[in-house]
Amino acid sequence: MAGRTKRVLTTERLALRRFRDGDAEPLYRLHADPRVMRYIGDGSIGTRASVVAAVKRSIRYYDTYPGLGVWPAEDRVSDEFVGWFCLKYVPETVEIEVGYRLAPSAWGRGYATEGARAVVRYGFDELGLDRIIGLTHPDNGASQRVLQKAGLRDSGWGNYYGRRLRLFAANARQSVARSDGFLDHASATA
């Protein structure tokens, strides 16, 4: 999957880039895995048609909302697709959400935290965002820990995507976790 598409972000082990038309197959494999979809919506797995539509929608999103989007993540050494990360508007709100979805082969390896930290820092440092939120299913403790390691704080509950979800948030003026695990103050003007 590596190659011609310019990288949006890189971390020590991950490369995030824009989606392209040929990305539907690895994305379909990700969204067709019930383990991956367990805490997403009603837990339904994606169809090929829904995944092709999601890739096309993601490609259009880059022009509609410059700097934001959903980006496939690849291992920088093997070029293996490990999942995706996003920084995007939550539908029907003005909130910007950090999100991620990783293949089970990438679980437990620190990729989610590494990528989420990079996306949050990008949102504050490069895009100048004031606030970034993260949302999880109430039972998804692993994702909640990732959001906290990425510098978001538990903010209770919120109603998003038509359901009650756990809400985590970070403001540009608060401390944000650096990729090395130390806390740093995000650059922002008050």
Largest sheet: 5 strands, antiparallel
In DSSP terms (H or I, runs of 4 or more residues), the helix count works out at 5
Question: What is the overall pLDDT average?
Answer: 90
Broad structural category? alpha+beta
Helix content: 25-40%
Given the C-alpha coordinates, what overall shape results?
globular
What is the radius of gyration? 16 Å
Domain count, please report it. Answer: 1
SSE order, one letter for each helix or strand: EEHHHEEEHEHEEEE
Let me know the CATH homologous superfamily: Gcn5-related N-acetyltransferase (GNAT)
Determine the oligomeric state from the structure. Answer: single chain
Low-pLDDT residue intervals, each spanning 5 or more residues: 178-190
Q: How many DSSP E strands?
A: 10
Arrangement of strands in the largest sheet: 1-2-3-4-5
Report the CATH topology name: Aminopeptidase
Tell me what the CATH architecture is: 3-Layer(aba) Sandwich
CATH class: Alpha Beta
Question: Can you give keywords for this protein?
Answer:
5-stranded antiparallel beta sheet; Aminopeptidase; 5 helices; 3-stranded antiparallel beta sheet; 190 residues; globular; single chain; alpha+beta; 10 strands
Q: Would you kindly provide a written description of the structure presented here, covering whatever features stand out?
A:
With 190 residues, this protein is α+β, with helices and mostly antiparallel strands. The chain has one domain (7-185): Aminopeptidase. Helices cover 28% and strands 32% of the residues. It has five helices and ten strands; from the N terminus they run ββαααβββαβαββββ. It has helices spanning 24-31, 34-37, 48-64, 111-126, 141-149; strands at 7-10, 14-17, 69-75, 81-89, 96-102, 131-136, 153-160, 163-171, 175-177, 183-185. The strands form three sheets. A five-stranded antiparallel β-sheet has the order 1-2-3-4-5, with helices on both faces. A three-stranded antiparallel β-sheet has the order 6-8-7. Helix 4 packs across helix 5 (141-149). Mean pLDDT is 90; it is low at 178-190.
